[in-house]
Amino acid sequence: MIRVMLVDDHALVRMGFRMLLANAGIDVVAEAGDGEQACADYGRVKPDVVVMDLSMPGMGGLEAVRRLLAQDPKARVLALSAHEDTAHPRRVLRVGALGYLAKRCAPESLIAAVGAVARGERYVDPQTAQALAMAQIEGEASPADMLSEREFAVFIQLARGATVAQIADNLKLSPSTVGTHLYHVKQKLRAGNQSELTLVALRWGLIEA
């Protein structure tokens, strides 16, 4: 039986996923409401698959995936997201997640994705895979593609309204380091303030309105 850890800040979403997976004979052995808890519990639980939502308070899912894989390079992670952009799947797969599933997908896709990732196989839902392929063919790039992994993490948190102090705490960085990243983000995206960064993120579907 596949053992799964569910990581999502919405209890109702976790309950729905747990019921769906249980009906397919997949055992949810742990749940976490944020990335911090997932990273803390992972070593004790040792699940076969971590199903990780990317849009969560605190460090967020992308940073949590990065830390889990630093903790255990063999960790098998399936990232979930409601975002319609190509930046999130590209970055989380680059960080080391084995799978990516858009939340708009049919329920049975979750079962197929968990099964594939448990076997060590890559899984990207067809619509996201097509969007990634078309973006590559057409050369369409999000402004965020210019950012480093750290800059992207700072950018997303700031666009969601987090302060420099909160970002520093979430990402375990010094405020001065966050400030340096923020300076580079503004330069690369040609934004003068937090409001302009938020507009860029909204325009490219990197955060939800």
Describe what this molecule looks like in 3D.
- By secondary structure, the protein is of the alpha/beta class.
- 55% of the residues lie in helices and 13% in strands.
- It is built from ten helices and six strands; from the N terminus they run βαβαβαβαβαβααααα.
- It has helices at 11-23, 35-45, 60-71, 87-95, 107-118, 126-138, 149-159, 164-171, 175-189, 194-203, and strands at residues 3-7, 27-32, 49-53, 77-81, 99-102, 123-124.
- A six-stranded parallel beta sheet has the order 2-1-3-4-5-6, with helices on both faces.
- 41% of the residues are buried.
Q: What's the layout of helices and strands?
A:
Elements: E1 3-7, H1 11-23, E2 27-32, H2 35-45, E3 49-53, H3 60-71, E4 77-81, H4 87-95, E5 99-102, H5 107-118, E6 123-124, H6 126-138, H7 149-159, H8 164-171, H9 175-189, H10 194-203
Parallel strand pairs: 1-2, 1-3, 3-4, 4-5, 5-6
Helix pairs in contact: 2-3, 3-4, 7-9, 7-10, 8-9
**Topology, number of strands:** 6
Mean pLDDT: 91
Determine the number of helices (DSSP H or I, runs of at least 4 residues): 10
Q: Report how far the terminal alpha carbons are from each other.
A: 39 Å
